[in-house]
Structures are given as structure tokens and as C-alpha cells.
Amino acid sequence: MIDHSGQLHEVRAKNLLLATGGAGQLFAITTNPSVATGDGVAMALRAGVAVADLEFFQFHPTALYHPGIPRPLLSEALRGHGALLRNSAGERFIDEMLPRDVVSRAILAEMLQQQTDHVWLDATGLDHFAERFPTIYSDLVASGLDPMTDWLPVAPAAHHQCGGIVTDLSGATSLPGLWAAGETSCSGVHGANRLASNSLLEGMVFGPRAIESIAGGAFGPRPTGAMRSVLGFADSADSSLSIGGVALPVPELGPTGPTGKPDSAATPESLRRYIQQAMSTDAGVQRSAESLQRVWQVIGQTLAALDHMDPQVVAVAEVRNLAQIAQTLVAAALARTESRGTHARIDYPATDPAQTHRLVTGI
Ligand SMILES: Cc1cc2nc3c(=O)[nH]c(=O)nc-3n(C[C@H](O)[C@H](O)[C@H](O)COP(=O)(O)OP(=O)(O)OC[C@H]3O[C@@H](n4cnc5c(N)ncnc54)[C@H](O)[C@@H]3O)c2cc1C
């Protein structure tokens, strides 16, 4: 543990519950706060604890296009009440009520085709906006927008990490004494594509379950929930409903670039922006083998540059965590030669029934 003065302390405990949230900061454009650097998942990866489903990262299609991060959300409720998506020519281009991944890809396609960095959400037809959507309204007013008269600039933003540290239905990980709950975990709730609003419920259910299990003296995982992908599911009442696990090899990172040397002028902040930009461009809403190979190179350069920095500095530790998660995410995205849920490969657009399994590291 690093305290506020930068001192490192060792704290020993029989049980440890990780509840460190997701890793939206992997991407340049995100709805997640600056602390969402996936610290728990990165620690689990380093400890050889089972981690799965990192290739499934949900993008929210309609985050307000805005210079600041995190990006404010313009929720589905607006589209549910009749707000329309329009391209730069003012034309509708997608059924606004399709799932998040489908709408995100349609927006990205429109942005690429029209060489823009956003599309428009037209909520001018909605009545009583300020009363029905007070939080969104105040975000818009703070950005100088009036939803009664202005079309609202929107673009997809990284929103939710569907995978994480594999747990059973009590939050136990593959390492006895280590527990995980919430967005850092892969409990089995989200699969390849989280349903909106399941995350807060997940935290409310599995946080208390982990604490009750610890209090009850449990130690080590059982073959329930996503942990069946690690321990097998021979004891399941209906094994046809269980998703098997396949070991994900994470290859070594190659040389760090044409010169083989990291950039000596790099800072933790510049490295963070470097990897975020690469992840957004090449491993975000859609990916291909070619784009993922480009990110692989960036991850190698980032980790090499970090080797020259003080690992106890929080900013350095956070970028290292992001880079290590990116390494596993990209390895999984390369290995999953299909499109499924939030994972969209433009070179493999179809879903392959033979890949109905979790890719798991640490087994
Ligand atoms: C804008 C937005 C809107 C959302 N709306 C909904 C919704 O309507 N319904 C829904 O179900 N979900 C929603 N979600 C998703 C949901 O909020 C998250 O999945 C959920 O909050 C995750 O909870 P958590 O406790 O796992 O992590 P978090 O709430 O992210 O909390 C993690 C905590 O761990 C701390 N932490 C991280 N690393 C360290 C470290 N190394 N040391 C010490 N502390 C650390 C962080 O500071 C933070 O306090 C939304 C998310 C966003 C960003």
C-alpha cells in the first residue's frame, strides 16, 4: 500500500477483497473517472490469478462530445423518449433503440465516413426535458447547450469492463483468501455484453456475498458462476448452460520499436496518453489483427519506458497497470477470431459457435 506521502507499507491479512472498479482509463475517450485504472485486475494478472473476458469492453454510444474526461453520459432514456441520432448532414442512420454495441459501431462508421469526431443527438422534440432529466440537463447547461434548441454532439466512449478477475458466486478468486467484487471481477453476470444497469446490482449482490462468505470461514473458490470456466462444471445441474474456459497464452512483448529504445523524454502522463490513444484507435469499438498488432507495439514501448521510472510513484504504477491489462486484452482480442458482443473484429465479423468459451489467463 502506498500512503499519501508516497511511503510503501506492507499490510498482511488472511483475506483481501478487491473492489477497485474497471479500467475505462485504458481508452482516450471514456465515461470513467481518472481512478479507473484497473489496479485490481493488474495485481491479479501479476499474481497469476485467473482473469477472463478482458476483450469484452462496452462502449456507450452517446457520451457528450466534450473536451473533458470523463465524458458525461446522455443516457438511453433520451433515445427511449424519442431523441434521434443524426449525421453531419442531419440524416438519421440507425434505429436508436438497438443495443449499445450496434449503435456504437454505426456511429463510428458514420464518423469515419464523414471525417467527423461526433454525430448529433436531436432531443429537441422531447417535452419537459429539465424536469425529466435533471442531471443530464445540468451537464448540458454547464457545457453551454440547450437541449430544447441545440442538437447535442455525441460520440462513443469506453464505459464498462465486462471481464475481470474470475470469481465464483461468493466472490472467491482462484487464489484462496483473495476475493473480488464489482467491476474488477468476472462473476459471470455480464458475459460478452453487459446489460445496462446490471453493474450496480452486481456490486450490491456480490460485495455482501463475499463478506458473508469470509465471515463464515470460507477459503478458496467453488465451481459456481464464472469460476466454472476455471474449475470445470461437472457438478453443475445443467452443464449445457455453463461456459467453458480456454487458457489464453499472453505472448512476450517484442522489441520496443524501430530503434529498440524507449523514448527518453517520456513521462507517466505522456505514456498514459500514448497508450490510451492507441487503444481507442486500434482496440476500441472495433479491431482487426492489423490494428491490434499496432497496439501491441505501443504496449511494448510503454512498458519498456516505465522500466526507467520509479514504480512507487502512483502515476507510474497506474500506467503500468493499464499497460499490463492492455497486453492481456489485446492478446485475447487477437485470439478471439470472431465477433461476439462488445468484441467486434472487422476481419472476423461473424460469431463463431466454436468460440463460445472464456479466454482465461492464470490457469
Ligand atoms: C457515468 C457512469 C454511469 C453509470 N451508470 C450506471 C447505471 O445507471 N447502472 C449501473 O448498473 N451501472 C452504471 N455504471 C457502471 C457502474 O457505475 C460501475 O460498474 C460500478 O460503479 C462499479 O462499482 P465498483 O464498486 O466495482 O467500482 P467503482 O465504483 O469504480 O469504485 C472503485 C473504487 O476503488 C478505488 N480504487 C481504485 N484503485 C484503487 C487502488 N489502487 N487503491 C485504493 N483504491 C482504489 C476507486 O477510487 C473507487 O473509489 C455507470 C458508470 C459510469 C461511469
TrEMBL record:
The keyword Cytoplasm does not apply. Pathway: Cofactor biosynthesis; NAD(+) biosynthesis; iminoaspartate from L-aspartate (oxidase route): step 1/1. This is L-aspartate oxidase. SUPFAM superfamilies: FAD/NAD(P)-binding domain, Succinate dehydrogenase/fumarate reductase flavoprotein C-terminal domain, Succinate dehydrogenase/fumarate reductase flavoprotein, catalytic domain. Residues 3-200 form the FAD-dependent oxidoreductase 2 FAD-binding domain. One of its GO terms (molecular function) is L-aspartate oxidase activity. Pfam families: FAD_binding_2, Succ_DH_flav_C. Its EC number is 1.4.3.16. It comes from freshwater metagenome. Residues 272-354 form the Fumarate reductase/succinate dehydrogenase flavoprotein-like C-terminal domain. GO terms for biological process: 'de novo' NAD+ biosynthetic process from L-aspartate. The keyword Nucleotide-binding does not apply. Keywords: FAD, Flavoprotein, Oxidoreductase, Pyridine nucleotide biosynthesis.
